[in-house]
Design brief:
Layout (H helix, E strand, L loop, with lengths): L6 H12 L5 H8 L3 H13 L17 E9 L5 H15 L5 E4 L5 E8 L2 H12 L4 E9 L14
Antiparallel strand pairs: 1-3, 1-4, 2-3
Helix pairs in contact: 2-3
Length: 156
């Protein structure tokens, strides 16, 4: 499961990463917080597996960004050709996307994908733009509040 780290959690981890043996009272003073608050945050991060053993192992919880991509397939003289192409394209994209579905109009594909940066997203979009059957591409960044394990987003 992926957890969102608060700004305070990040500051605590940075301090512990610099010196994992620093007394909590000293680190709390450096951060300008009560040592009880520091103890509480460290305890929670231990329970979640963010901090392991005596040393600090920090996973890059912000390495991936989630985007919803909406593709519209069309331009065919026969409507069924667009519907067939949308299904085919959806199946092809299911290898790359974490979640894929087709809307009720049967020619609009919605996909969720995790990427490391804008460059990776732009590469995917440029690749999709090459397909002459795709007449419209829209995308927006999402903040996943619930369901990341359902979408298998952390496996990338």
């Amino acid at each position: 499961m992926v957890y969102t780290l608060s700004e305070l959690d990040k500051k605590i981890l940075k301090g512990l990463k610099e010196d994992s043996r620093i007394p909590y009272t000293k680190l709390a003073k450096q951060l300008g917080i009560p040592d009880t608050t520091l103890h509480f945050h460290v305890k929670k991060m231990k329970e979640r597996g963010i901090i392991k053993k005596f040393t600090v192992i920090i996973e890059d919880y912000e390495k991936n960004r989630t985007f919803m991509i909406k593709l519209k397939v069309g331009g065919h003289i026969i409507a069924d050709a667009s519907i067939k192409k949308a299904r085919m394209l959806g199946k092809e994209l299911s290898e790359q996307f974490n979640f894929i579905g087709i809307l009720e109009d049967k020619v609009t594909i919605i996909g969720l994908i995790k990427v490391k940066n804008e460059e990776e997203l732009n590469k995917i979009v440029k690749n999709l733009e090459r397909d002459p059957d795709i007449i419209k591409i829209e995308y927006d960044e999402l903040e996943i509040l619930k369901g990341d394990e359902f979408l298998n987003l952390e496996s990338l």
